[in-house]
Amino acid sequence: MAGAFQSITLRRLAAATVVVMGAGYALAFLYAPQDAVEGFIQKVFYLHVPLAIVSLVGFMVAAVHAIRHLRTGDPKHDARSYVSIHISVIFGIAVLLTGAIWAKGAWGIWWEWREPTLVSFLIVILLYATYYPLRYAIEDRDRQARYSSVFAITAGAFVPLNFLAVRLAQPLIHPRTFSSSGGLPGSMLLAFLVCLAGVALLWVTLVWFELDAKKASGNLKRIRRALEATT
Amino acid sequence: MIPPLAIQDGGYVGGAYLVFLLLLLIYVAIMAAKLQRIQRDLSSLADLADRSQGQGSDRGVGQIRGREEEIEAVRQGGRG
């Protein structure tokens, strides 16, 4: 019963993701005006920035699940923390790639090492890339889950600090999406917010999907053990 | 007439969206392979359950045969 409910919810979630993302990118390309300074290449912003925001928030969500895991010892919170980090790392890689393509078009270079926004995001992704070797270097499942949770909390706390440090730093060339000197015009903001909602829904859908697959795999192992014990 | 700079910008924009789509497709392909493995495992377990049910009715007369081989075959199937 619970499984059937979950699969219906996942189906609805996936459908909602397709609708919202479709609407968001239709708005971005057909409704939002072309940027007066950057021109057509600014359309990358509707993908790149939502991915960056969702990826960073996803790391913090993973930290919250890790705290719940350490408090309760329930392995489901560890699984949620692991999957949240997994999907956020994939989104983070997409941020780096789409950002590099945008930089090449807008600045003429793929990467700028003096730009704090770029380098700090790279550091965050590299930090989370070490999560996998750390996790799989430990064989004992309980210790693996505990140490991974400690990592997720520590790294998760680093994410907002890092974001704050970048906001306080003097930007070199990277534009600020939301600054005190004035934000986006209404039509661009609407398209951006719908795209952000779509990317957030995509993150939730993928996390849910992977958690379901993990749960099915775990249930199969349990059934196999039970069957082997009875035969 | 579309200016050459706009065409170049279009290429970068298309490239960025395609890269994201490609990443997503790779992820979906990996997950599909995982689900296929789960499906295979499930079928082999269903077979094992059917057979063990049949054997269960004969157990009283001591006719259980080749259990270890069956379990090993399922294990091999699950790994493959």
Number of strands of chain B: 0
Largest sheet of chain A: none
Strand content of chain A: under 5%
Taking pLDDT < 50 over at least 5 consecutive residues as the criterion, the unreliable ranges of chain A are none
What's the number of helices of chain B? 2
Biggest beta-sheet profile of chain B: none
Quaternary structure classification: heterodimer
Biggest interface, chains and residues, is: A-B, 30 and 30 residues
Radius of gyration of chain A: 20 Å
Question: How many distinct helices of chain A?
Answer: 7
Radius of gyration of chain B: 26 Å
The helix content of chain B is: over 70%
User: What is the helical fraction of chain A, as a range of percent?
Assistant: over 70%
Structural class of chain B comes to mainly alpha
Q: How much is the average pLDDT of chain B?
A: 75
- Average pLDDT figure of chain A: 88
Features:
heterodimer, A: 231 residues, 7 helices, B: 80 residues, mainly alpha, 2 helices, 85% helix
Description:
The complex is a heterodimer of chains A (231) and B (80). Chain A is an all-alpha fold. Chain A has helices at residues 2-31, 45-72, 75-106, 116-129, 131-136, 141-168, 186-230. Chain A has seven helices and no strands. Chain B is built from two helices and no strands. The longest helix of chain B is centred in the middle third of the chain and has 55 residues, at 4-58. Residues 60-64 of chain B have low confidence and may be disordered. The A-B interface holds A 39-41, 43-44, 47-48, 51, 90, 93-94, 97-98, 101-102, 104-105, 206, 209-210, 213, 216-217, 220, 223-224, 227-228, 230-231 and B 5-6, 8-10, 12-13, 15-17, 19-20, 23, 27, 31, 34-35, 38, 41-42, 45, 48-49, 52, 55, 67, 70-71, 74, 78.
Question: TL;DR of this structure?
Answer:
The complex is a heterodimer of chains A (231) and B (80). Chain A is mainly α and 231 residues long.
